[in-house]
Amino acid sequence: MQCLRQQGSGQLGRAAGQRPAAAPRLSLPCSAPGARGGRRASSSRGSLATRGLAESPAAPASSQARSPSSAAGAVATGPDAEFESFCAASAAGANVVPLYRRLLSDQLTPVTVYRCLVKENDVNAPSFLLESVVNGDQTGRYSFVGAMPALEVVATQSRVTVLNHAAGTRRVTEEEDPLDVPVQLSRNWRPAQVEGLPAVFTGGWVGYAGYDTVRYVYGGKIPFESSPHDDRQLPDLHLALYNDVVVIDQATKLIYAISWVHLDGDAAVPASPAAAAASPPAGARDRAALRAAYDAGRARLDHLVSLLQTPPPPLAQGLVDLSLAQLPASPGRSNMTEGGFLGAIARAKEYILSGDIFQLVLSQRFERRTFAQPFEVYRALRVVNPSPYMVYMQARGCVIVSSSPEILCRVDGTRVVTNRPLAGTRRRGADAAADAALEEELLADAKERAEHVMLVDLGRNDVGKVCESGSVVVEKLMEVERYSHVMHISSTVTGKLQRGLDCWDALRAALPAGTVSGAPKVRAMQIIDELEVNRRGPYGGGVGHVSFTGAMDMALGLRTMVIPSAAVDTMYSYNGADSRREWAVHIQAGAGLVADSVPEKEYEETINKAAALGRAVDLAEQAFVRAQGH
């Protein structure tokens, strides 16, 4: 198929600046556990799975300061080789430098690595586990785990709280655009690129931008005042900065324990232009100060390795005694009655027929109460619905358990922006022949094709807002992707990010995905505010990471369970000395409405989508709760 091209459509976001040069590339020795020196780690670069962004050679985002392009030269040898290379990184201009160790992974899985870092009863500790399954049955090469962030940015409407855990400080401000806060915090980073580390996410921001962050982008067109009732009071934006990250390489069977060291002081205090200008020039940092920073980083790294080398308490094995394909009779109690949802569909169709919009994505939220713990639900979801973006994230006010199939915004290390709309769905067949027949039926469905083409047009427009003129390409058009239980029509739109813009600008352009809003976007969002009864929260936003190099990979918040951390009516179950608390699992699902939509079918579609995730709750209850006599 010939690639389709589109002219760029201007800039979005902050005023354009100068694109930084590439960060210095160094060869830091990788020490064996317990040793100060050690041989240099061999490079493990190769083909990357869904989550493996090609961050190398990576230019930091334009929100970060210029880094010199020269490398540090030969690697020192001897017992202090790592420290000498650390100093060389500073001399080359880097002010954020990673230290790392490698461990064999044959005794650890992503799940047990997470449990090494976060104890079972510590459900409020900010932390994450990111995994990937591609094409329904192929495990992604890399998994990522992090805990104990250095700082957090938490925004509710315009109120922003920056929690600096390292310094023990809390700063609260009112911001016109809270999305600018992490940009300002990271604008002067000059990360060193170290040979021997895989070219994937190794540290940086991890968190979510909820659906309502679109109000930061579109301002008065969709103000917070017009939004539905906010019954959960969750943050609209939560991003945590992880200097200590564990990367699990499934191909080489190695684990990388990584600790990033900030050489210019507190990572939570954005340097003013004057302060940045006054910082020590490359090579001028005091050697004693470098030794202190290095020793502090090594102490953090030693602690991280010790956690990985301390086996966690055994996890419950979990017997699977139910059919994974069978859906629950009901996904739970909805925040809308059936009549109310059908009435909202009818009203949406009136807007479509009057020409206000072409398409609208209307959703409802289901609540399922369970005594299964959130991490047990995640363990079950890995089995029931593996996907390219498997997420377990303990955030402020909630736990996010997600199996999203779709990219919201990806910007790789070569500044290529990717948008990949998914729309059009069929269940998987019982065998290859049935799969082929269903795929043919899906591609022949005029309604599904029309909806998908509309979303591709939205994707081209979103990418074109921030990409160079003539660089926007539809690389794949209307291909069928197969997942564990369903197949989708997929297209891929890419473009080259404009000079002076960064991944945060690309995220602003992508919010919200047409898959969860409609077309045209602004009018569709205004109608969603009118017809839906509660704020969406993380549903329909983005969940993912932004690396120190400026690469971004944000999944769309679909097939996502949001589990609030607290409720006033929490029940408890007791079995002798063992007790379990009740959790409210929120599952939101939507349907894309067009002029010829049949309301009853669209309502049923939301039920089926939510029920598919509800099956993970069923499995968690069967495998863990009832197995313990609750």
Automatic annotation (TrEMBL):
Molecular function terms from GO: anthranilate synthase activity
Keyword Repressor: no
Residue ranges constituting the Anthranilate synthase component I N-terminal domain according to the UniProt record: 106-254
Span list, region Disordered: 1-75
Keywords associated with the record: Amino-acid biosynthesis, Aromatic amino acid biosynthesis, Lyase, Tryptophan biosynthesis
Residue ranges occupied by any Chorismate-utilising enzyme C-terminal domain in the UniProt entry: 341-609
EC annotation from Swiss-Prot or TrEMBL: 4.1.3.27
NCBIfam families per UniProt: trpE_most
Family statement: Belongs to the anthranilate synthase component I family.
Protein name, as recorded: anthranilate synthase
Organism: Raphidocelis subcapitata
